[in-house]
Amino acid sequence: MSGFVDDLNIFEVAHRCIRARPLAACWLESRYSAGARKGFGMVGVKQVERVPYRATEGWAAYEDVRLPVTLLLDNVRSMYNVGSFFRTADGAGVERLLLSGITARPPKKAISKTALGAEERVRWEPVEDVAGRLDELRRNTYELAAIETSDRAVDIFDWQPRFPVCVLFGHEVDGLSGELLEACDTHVRLPMLGLKHSLNVSSAGAIVMYELLRKYRAICRPGYGSGWRPER
Asked: Is 45 contained in some domain?
């Protein structure tokens, strides 16, 4: 293929792909007009800028949805991993991060390198007494879930979380301490079908956050995905 889309089909293709709302439609028209002024039609992927998710119709399924999930990062060694947690937490709408042990706290250049400003948007709190904080969360009806490869861990896709949830992540090599594992209501693991038994902690965190968002959306928008559409 040449990478070009003819004038007749460009908007039909774009609207089908992103189910564009008015903001996205205006964005497409402005990009098309700019391209026409330069003497060419709407070019392929390399020339098309990204559309903000909030400008698409899909955003309606998440409007007014705030994911009731707290993350506790205990002894996460890498500041790059901490920054990645902040960035994904911002994207998934997580309510806050609790940072304990040797886990670095903002502001730190290494955190900002991967967080890209998300550390200034996502609420976070330092935690000195982890056991006491977990007791407080339990009293506030949080389910405490450890991401760990223990023999009692359930597959994340089989897990039916009881929101609100506090998810615990531990050290990149040593994982969570026995004390914290014992304090949790549930152990959850990711299916690993290859030779390796675990993922990088921030990669695992991203999967967990978005799976929780998917499950929570099913509660808030029970018909979505089976013909549900926002009201006009």
From this structure: yes
